[in-house]
Amino acid sequence: MDFKTYVRDIQDFPEKGIVFKDISPLLKDERAFQAATKAMIAMVGNNAVDKVIGIESRGFFFAPLLAFELSAGFVPVRKVGKLPADKISRTYALEYGSDTLEIHSDSITKGDRVLIHDDVLATGGTARAACELVESLGGEVVLCHFLLELDFLNGRRRLENYPAKSLMAF
């Protein structure tokens, strides 16, 4: 299946000059959604995974499905102020600003093998911050996992110490 046909470009969102890759058409088509989920599970290969991190907010679409299929726990990594219990945070640069991610301090146990999932790999700042959060809690990042990758932003450079896979590249 050509998953790229289910991704549309939205000009000037969220800011002027940005071309947003909208995955809504993929999500609403049951065949494409199921096929993409199966393909992303296959991308994990033989990696043993204890926890799957989903990065707010669009990482929440697939990460719980991946966790379920991999018999792993699901851990949300959220923007500031969204998690109620004790947490740690990392601030990172975006292609159009900066942001901060938080994770509950008890969500990763020392030695946990963690898959980090997000919908898009752009500059790599978000995924790198998630990797640092996992490692600061004693976890091991086994894979950075994406629905799509924007090659022209060179996000893999920030993930050079981590294995990374994307279902689609633009």
Automatic annotation (TrEMBL):
Record keywords, A-Z: Cytoplasm, Glycosyltransferase, Purine salvage, Transferase
Record-linked NCBIfam families: apt (TIGR01090), PRK02304.1-3 (NF002634), PRK02304.1-5 (NF002636)
Binding partners and assembly: Homodimer.
Pathway of action: Purine metabolism; AMP biosynthesis via salvage pathway; AMP from adenine: step 1/1
Enzyme class: transferase
EC number from the UniProt entry: 2.4.2.7
Name of protein: Adenine phosphoribosyltransferase
One MF annotation (Gene Ontology) recorded for this entry: AMP binding
Assigned protein family: Belongs to the purine/pyrimidine phosphoribosyltransferase family.
